[in-house]
Amino acid sequence: MLNDFLASLPFMTEARADLVIGAFWPMVKAGFLVSVPLAVASFLIGMVIAVAVALLRVMPRGGLLHQTALALAKVYISAIRGTPILVQISIVFYGLPAIGVYIDPIPAAIIGFSLNVGAYASETIRAAILSVPKGQWEAGFSIGMTYMQTFRRIIAPQAFRVSVPPLSNEFIGLFKNTSLAAVVTVTELFRVAMESANRAYDFLPVYIEAAVVYWCFCWVLFFIQAKIEKRFDRYVAK
Fold it and tell me: Shortest CA distance to 49 belongs to which of 106, 102, 125, 148?
């Protein structure tokens, strides 16, 4: 029945309907088993990098070591934000073997995505930290807290609430960007679509189907994002 329905659509044939139906579950499976874990792992590692870089940039200027680390952080952010993520992943997977460093496809993709997330999210986190009034810092110092204690107990919770919406969008964008991992031979959702289309040498229906599958995944992520933001809004209102 589904095959007949698809075949009745414009530009569809029975062969195309069979192709679309056959490609659907492999794409969904790859999305759940590869694309989502790849996005989650890259996002978590990237957030560790982002928090470290953001703290480095907002903390009071220190000695030579801090100044050097700060300069390196600025170069890192500039380099990542100024180059395409596809180039970054390709350098990790295809470029590093030139100097004797060989990395498997999935770790290479995670490294590339994590570095990208770390640079962009660090700016989001830095802005969220700076949005907390300076009086909050002074209040913490006035009761004898150290810089890190004040940040952990007073500043971080407030900054976290501010950064939730943009970081949620960052994760959704990262999930879509996992399609670029196909370039380094990771068999994620889009790679499965490419392989299905290549076998039949019929690209349009499969690529449209892949777009719909990505859309469905992102719709679920949008729903989760809305729930998280609503929960935080209620928490702030209290």
Answer: 125
pLDDT mean for each 10 residues of the chain (238 residues): 59 75 92 96 96 88 84 95 95 94 95 96 92 84 83 84 89 95 93 92 90 96 87 59
CA distances from 207 to 2, 27, 155, 213, 214 (A): 19, 11, 45, 10, 10
User: Does the global pTM surpass 0.85?
Assistant: yes
**For residues 178 and 35, what is the distance between their CA atoms, to the nearest angstrom?**
6
CB 22 within 8 A of CB 196: yes
Q: Structure tokens of 173? A: 């964008």
The CATH-assigned architecture of domain 12-237 is Orthogonal Bundle (1.10)
The amino acid sitting at 102 is Y
